[in-house]
Amino acid sequence: MRIRIAHAISYDYAEPARHITQVLRLTPRDHDGQHVMSWRIEPSIDGRLRASRDAHGNIVHSFYADGPISSLAIRIEGVIETIDLAGVVRGGLEQVPCEVYRRDTLLTGRDDALCRFAADAAAGAGTPLSQMHALMAAVGEHMTCVEASGRSGIGATAAFAAGEAIAQDIAHVFMAGARHLGMPARYVSGYVAAAGGLPHGDGAHAWAEVHLDDYGWIGFDCANGLCPIDTHVRVAVGLDYADAAPVRGSRQGGEGETLNVLVRAVAAEGRFANQ
Amino acid sequence: MVAFDEMTGSGAELRSAYSALDRWLKDTPAETLALRRSQAELFFRRIGITFAVYGDAESTERLIPFDIIPRVLTKPEWIKLEAGLRQRVTALNMFLADVYGPKECLKAGIIPPDLVYRNACYQLEMVDFKVPHGIYCHIAGIDVVRVDADTFYVLEDNARTPSGVSYMMENREVMLRLFPELFATHRIAPVDNYPDQLLATLRSVAPRSAPSDPTICLLTPGQYNSAFYEHSFLADKLGVELVEGSDLLVKDDVVYMRTTQGPKRVDVIYRRIDDDFLDPLVFRGDSVLGVPGIVGAYKAGNVTLANAIGTGVSDDKAVYSYMPEIVKFFTGEEPILKNVPTWRCREPEANAYVLDNLENLVVKEVNGSGGYGMLVGPHANKAQIESFRHKLKAQPDGFIAQPTLALSTCPTFVASGVAPRHVDLRPYVLSGANGISCVPGGLTRVALKEGSLVVNSSQGGGTKDTWVLDA
Amino acid sequence: MLSRTADSLYWVSRYVERAEYLARILDATTRLTNLPSTYGGAGTEWQSAVSTAGCEDEFAAAYGEANERNVCEFLTFHPDNPSSIRNCLAQARSNARAVRTALTSEMWDALNSAWLELQRFEKKRMDREEFARFLDWVKNVSLVFDGSAYRTMLRDDGYWFSRLGVYLERADNTARILDVKYHVLLPANEQVGGSLDYFQWTTVLREVSALTAYHWVYREAVKPILIADLLILNRRMPRSLASCYENISRFLDHLGDAYGRHGPSQRQARKTLTGLSNTKIDAVFERGLHEFIEEFITENNRLGNTIFEQYLQ
User: Fold this and answer.
1) A46 close to B (CB below 8 A)
2) CB C108 to CB B48 under 8 A?
3) Domain boundary among C153, C182, C203
4) Residues 6+ apart with CB under 8 A from B82
5) Bridge-partner residues for A60, per DSSP?
6) What residue ranges of chain A are covered by domains with CATH 2.60.40.2250?
7) Is there a single domain that holds both residue C73 and residue C101?
8) Taking chain C, what is the end-to-end CA distance rounded to the nearest angstrom?
9) Residues of C in contact with B222 (CB under 8 A)
């Protein structure tokens, strides 16, 4: 499927900022399941944009701008071609030993309840793969996915206790469970095209990947109850949301920030198809 | 359990290093000692050498008790100890270069890979990054304890931001003021060249692109940090600016200080902020202590951080238990300093033994520090032991266990007069581009409560001046 | 030097100066209210003390009607008053602690000892006598700190920033006294005559410790217009606005010379100083004393901001 993505992040400051630094993980890489046809990141103001690669192999852009800045918009546009590999991720850049992804982080810590939950979910299942499918089903059933719209994450334990969470925390809950069962698990931030008619996605989304000896990395999207298909575009991976966050920033001055985000990810048929 | 006494050995003799001190103690009335002690306390309070205790809202600033009776080491003892420290720190630096580089020691099976990879202190940002001059741990504090006339054990390596060196120096200062006569009758190796050595170390590791007179600063979390006094003390002695995160800014991967004359470029940062709080763009996003972009500047090679990011993977308590093998693997030598025998609870047989012998062992949380998250079996009550039993069963790889060591004792002036109290020793080892240096002695910490083995200042420990006799 | 260090040095001095000023207000007000009522004012002396200290809103929120007990409590140790003597000394020490190494040991000692001593005072129950001792002690702390700075600090930017703090605060304080008491200095009141006003006037002089100085300078009975002259224009009087600005301008020029660049702070301070030099007190009264003072306070605050922007951020 050919997916066209338009993502705009804009900030307005009541009091102009003197300096802004942003770290952007907003650029996908190629792997067997996806090919980047075109991709552009454009800040609305002059500054220095430097590309590098982080520990996980993600493409990172650091953006520095001097003020006074009263508003800043970052526009991302691109076209990706995907194929459905039933969630299996192959042919990507893997820099970190998968053992690293068994670590607990602030956002993926787990309490007794969550551990019991994961153990119960996997109890009947045979192979590690079917255990993970069982865990995905259980998380999908236990957790209600709510739209992000300005909410920020609270971490696996709190989200699990609440029973409802935004997509990133549902991924955290699944990761915490998988790690408890001894599996390396990582966080994925990306986009889901509206085309598939999936209940959650239609824009920015988050899910998890688990490393299984026989398959390598496989994605699990608990919010949508499936392993990622060709509607899913992987952008960045990490130990948790904080590690793979699309934007991390800091500024001097610039009190009274308001943030607006617009994301569209659509199947690009017809006139986009040959672009 | 009878502990080795620094002054009287097994109790009957008088060890030669202490002969003059023994005479002095016998000749000096208790009232004089008490008077000197209160003068020492006044001195410390006036210079403001206080520390903050975490979780203690009542009195946020306290003095660490100072004991006026020094702890004495002979020159031969120190020579051996120093050789062991140099070897240990050399191995620590080689280990760090290896785990962030070729990973030979993991391939050779010296240490289980998951201990490194799953360790939160193993900073992925540092993988395949070449640190300036190949040195990771510029300032190390190695905690050693003594169990008999010839044996020192390393209790813990501190490779992140070890503190206490200001106490080492101020203790000497106050002793010189209060007891000049003791310094006339002993030949004691000086410690006041420590700042010069530290400065030379920091200058030597400046980025190669830095000017020949690099700008150095000391980065502190601020005045509410428990070690703030030390930070300001060291900055003053080094003659460098004491900066907080907000005093630094990063532009285009270069670090600057905000000064009254505009931004000034910084080349070397002696940072006393933990990795997690160093850069909100890379580590904890909620940190207000750090400097956004500083990791980028570091990785661009424009600034040196001392210590490097990610040194914590080498002083973790689980990694500690492999240090003898690590020393041997990297230096090709037998370790001069021993490790305390350690049961790794991650190993099922070891854990079974530990569970059976909890009342005799010291159990430590792998990621705990400062004496927190620790069980001292012989001093614990039933409930504490049971709570640890539960923890050990639930998460065995979070713990190690060690025998309760008979830490050596040293005469100490307490309420009941002069009595033996358990001590440890933290020497400070500096690693620069031009080699390793180590001032003679270090900081002696003393558990002031009778029979107590916990010397941490946060838990009622005190300090002593440490003498290395030069003859 | 680090901007934060300069900022802290500046604020250490300001807070110590402010603590002393509060002690003077309390001292002078106590004297005034101790007079038999026939000599006293309108019975609003304590409210006036709160206004002079510049914390009317905070006080109103904590108490309501002003009396000796609650005003003394509020201006000395009250936790809700950010500008109480206690909080000023605490802030001074906290700023000093953050930049310990930029202070001489004598200056640190003055502040640290004051802090330790303050805690002893705080625990005591204070009768009038003890309270008077306390106020004297506060004034003394300021003298010791000021003296130790004067005697032990290197004459470089650190010293100049610390002096700027002293004189900006002092100018603000003197101007505030005039702002609150201007009405007793107006000619209309002079005609009322009698002892009532006399004690109000001498209170103003006492608040800036200038009663003796007045007689030496003017060799005349106390007159409102001369009081205003002394406090605003007389450069021989160390708390006058003119004297403060003479110092502010001098220390800013030292900074500008040392850094090789003069900027908006230097220009602004010089302008205010020139204005004070070329004014006669009659003209001030003609234009309106109150307006003159309000304008000065605004300008003085503006200079504080300019210094902050030029050097301290």
Assistant:
1) no
2) yes
3) C153
4) B427, B438, B440
5) A52
6) 2-80+246-272
7) yes
8) 12
9) 98
Closest listed residue to residue B180, CA positions, set B18, B35, B36: B36
- Looking at the structure, tell me whether residues C298 and C158 fall in a common domain: yes
ipTM of the complex: 0.89
- DSSP tag of C125: -
What is the extent of the structural domain holding C140?
A: 12-153
**Is there a single domain that holds both residue C196 and residue C143?**
no
pLDDT of chain B, 471 residues: tens digit per residue: 678 999 999 888 899 899 999 999 999 999 999 999 999 988 887 776 665 544 433 345 677 889 999 999 999 999 999 999 999 999 999 999 999 999 999 999 999 999 999 988 999 999 999 999 999 999 999 999 999 998 999 999 999 999 999 999 999 999 999 999 999 989 999 999 999 999 999 999 999 989 999 999 999 999 888 888 899 999 999 999 999 999 999 988 999 999 999 999 999 999 999 999 999 999 988 888 999 999 999 999 999 999 999 999 999 888 999 999 999 999 999 999 999 999 999 999 999 999 999 999 999 888 655 456 788 888 889 999 999 999 899 888 889 999 988 899 999 999 888 999 999 999 999 999 999 999 999 999 999 998 888 888 777 789 999 999 986
Q: Determine what percent of chain B falls in helix, strand and coil, rounding each to the nearest 5.
A: 35, 25, 40
Contact B292 A102 (CB under 8 A): no
Positions of CATH 3.10.620.30 in chain A:
86-244
Distances (CA, A) of B451 to B11, B409, B446, B455: 16, 10, 11, 11
Strands (E), B178-253: 216-220, 241-244, 248-251
Phi, psi dihedral angles at B227 (to 5 degrees) = -105, 20
> From CA C195, how far away is CA B268, in angstroms rounded?
69
Determine the topology of domain A86-244 in CATH: C8orf32 fold (3.10.620)
What is the reported pTM? Answer: 0.88
- Same domain, yes or no: B427 and B376: no
Please give the Cα distance from C32 to C21 (Å, whole number). 17
CA B59 – CA B292 distance, rounded (Å): 33
The residue behind tokens 């041997």 is B328
d(CA A46, CA B254): 19
B 183-222: CB under 8 A from C = 222
B107 touches chain A (CB under 8 A): no
B164 Cβ partners below 8 Å, 6+ apart? B141, B230, B426, B443, B445, B463
Judge if B374 and B463 occupy the same domain.
no
Does A250 sit within 8 Å of B292, measured CB to CB?
Answer: yes
Place of tokens 């007045």: C214
The reply to whether C60 and C181 lie within a common domain is no
* CB contact (8 A) between residue A106 and residue B284: yes
Cβ neighbours of residue A114 under 8 Å, at least 6 residues apart? A156, A157, A160, A173, A176, A177, A180
Q: Name the nearest CA neighbour of B61 among C134, A196, C94.
A: C94
**Cross-chain residue pair B114–A103, CB shorter than 8 Å:** no
**Per CATH, is A2-80+246-272 categorized as 2.60.40.2250?**
yes
Give the number of other Cβ atoms within 10 Å of residue B218's Cβ.
24
Calpha distance C106→B46 (Å, rounded): 11
Token pair for B47: 């210079």
CATH number at residue B386: 3.30.1490.270
Contact A204, A264 (CB under 8 A): no
Residue ranges of E strands in B105-151: 139-146
